[in-house]
Amino acid sequence: MKKIKGSQKGKGNKQPAAFEPALCLIEPVIARDAGEALMTVARRLGDAGVLTVEGARILETQGRRIKQSPKPSEWSLLIDPDERVKFEWTQDKNGHHIQPWLCANLVVNQSLAGRPPFSALDIAIQFDDLNDEPVARWHVDLANEKDDAFQPGPLFHLQFGGHQQGFRDRDHPLKAPRWCHPPMEAALLCEVIAANFFEERWLVLREDPAWCEAIAHFQRLCYPSYLNKLAQALLKPRATLLNEVWAGDWVKSARLASDQASAARAS
Fold it and tell me: Taxonomically, which superkingdom (predicted)?
């Protein structure tokens, strides 16, 4: 059998390089571009019959508001449950009709160092039945902070349940587990719902360059810092990944890195 060069151990043989995390060199997402991208997502989902006419209008209005943000790297998104973004009706596995809807409360702050650029994040998807009663609910959340302490769990997490709007007696009794999950905003969550419940329409959307360009803005907003954190965690043999993304630990390390960077610039 022919030997492959460089496969033998010994002096002079190059060993595999250690995995190195990608540097977050992606430029900040500008509010003007984010707003325009959200407007594109709203229009495309409306035209495809994924969002209701009213749902597309509400989402497009939010995009227009973001576009006019006075600070290019900071903006907020508030979609109240009473002004929810509704999707068209679909069915569960048993053929029962369900309607997904989205609400959100998030604040983007791209000056935050060492963590994804959200100073507030709570975005939820709920499914209601034909009687407007809740069937299920999930939300992607930023861990709550109170008295300089964070709730147990990853800094950014996916959680089942939460507050059932208008049906608080049906809130799920379990508040955990909180699953490791990257942050998401409205456009990315809309794509998840489109792909899972309106797949044929999403398969057409994903071939649309304007759709992909719009979604790409929010991928660049949400994912680089999170992925960089995971990559760095893989290089630490004495710490688990879960430990690295645990809310209190992540924020503490991010603040320390920020303080060190500030001291270095001042010296």
Answer: Bacteria
